[in-house]
């Protein structure tokens, strides 16, 4: 699977996740095809819960792309600047759609800078870079300024460190790491005894759902894939553009 294919899979996954955020699948299908239904049809809820997992594929692939991009970029400064510019452009559309700040492009930028910090630190003194990385992850988790917080920075680092690992070894690591990264949700689920279907689904979708995206990265063949003029800007432009369109659509629906 080429890098372009992975990128398209991630874009479609993200689009699905955000579309169903504005137009929930069960409600949309019910309005279009079953307008006389007195209550939500159970089978539609099951369909929605099942397809929720599609939207969890995107984030791990985008995080993987930063680790891969850092390893292969010819100009780190331009790469970082591009992320910064489009992160700023996406911030208002992100707030318009979700009502809070800190879009994932800022997270990706911080992850990229952390990789550079790691190499710089290790160049100064053995192990210093890893210590600095730990500090960034902890600070990002504590201050929670951007989407994914510190765990997304950690995931970028793991993708970078395990690039040459065999798939079986990587799979075992992620099966342990992904649920562990959602420790707060798991703790809340058991400590508050929230043993309902809705909460169990939320636990699975957030602690296990992203493993689908991780699995896609295992099929990466190391090739860039088909290229075309401006292909490197596909993700950068698509992200703020689709947020803006969906944000405006949501405001129109709500009459705001």
Written overview of the protein:
This protein has 256 residues and is mainly alpha-helical. The chain has one domain. Helices cover 74% and strands 0% of the residues. It contains 13 helices and no strands. α4 runs parallel beside α6 and α5 runs antiparallel to α6. The radius of gyration is 19 Å and the shape is globular. It starts with a helix and ends with a helix. The model has no long low-confidence stretch (mean pLDDT 93).
Domain tally: 1
Task: Provide the helix percentage.
Answer: over 70%
Shape: globular
Let me know the largest β-sheet. Answer: none
| Record field, number of beta strands | 0
**Number of helices in the DSSP assignment:** 13
Rg, nearest Å:
19 Å
What is the residue-mean pLDDT, rounded to a whole number? 93
Topology order in helix (H) and strand (E) letters? HHHHHHHHHHHHH
Q: Structural class from helices and strands?
A: mainly alpha
Low-confidence stretches: none
Distance between the termini: 43 Å
Strand content: under 5%
Which short descriptors sum up this protein?
256 residues, mainly alpha, 13 helices, 0% strand, globular
């Amino acid at each position: 699977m080429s890098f372009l294919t992975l990128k398209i899979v991630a874009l479609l996954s993200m689009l699905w996740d955000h579309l169903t955020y504005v137009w929930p699948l069960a409600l949309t299908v019910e309005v279009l095809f079953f307008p006389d239904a007195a209550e939500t049809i159970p089978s539609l809820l099951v369909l929605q819960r099942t397809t929720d997992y599609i939207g969890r594929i995107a984030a791990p692939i985008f995080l993987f792309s930063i680790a891969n991009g850092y390893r292969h970029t010819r100009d780190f400064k331009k790469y970082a600047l591009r992320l910064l510019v489009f992160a700023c452009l996406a911030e208002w559309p992100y707030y318009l759609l979700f009502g809070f700040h800190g879009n994932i492009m800022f997270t990706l930028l911080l992850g990229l800078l952390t990789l550079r910090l790691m190499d710089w630190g290790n160049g100064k003194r053995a192990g210093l870079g890893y210590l600095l990385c730990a500090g960034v992850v902890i600070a990002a988790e504590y201050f929670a300024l951007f989407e994914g917080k510190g765990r997304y920075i950690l995931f970028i680092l793991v993708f970078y460190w395990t690039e040459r690992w065999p798939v079986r070894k990587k799979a075992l690591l992620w099966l342990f790491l992904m649920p562990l990264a959602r420790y707060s949700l798991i703790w809340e689920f058991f400590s508050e005894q929230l043993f309902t279907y809705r909460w169990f689904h939320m636990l699975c979708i957030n602690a296990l759902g992203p493993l689908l995206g991780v699995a896609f990265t295992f099929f990466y063949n190391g090739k860039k894939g088909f290229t075309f003029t401006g292909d490197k800007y596909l993700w950068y432009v698509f992200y703020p553009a689709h947020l803006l369109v969906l944000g405006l659509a949501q405001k129109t629906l709500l009459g705001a």
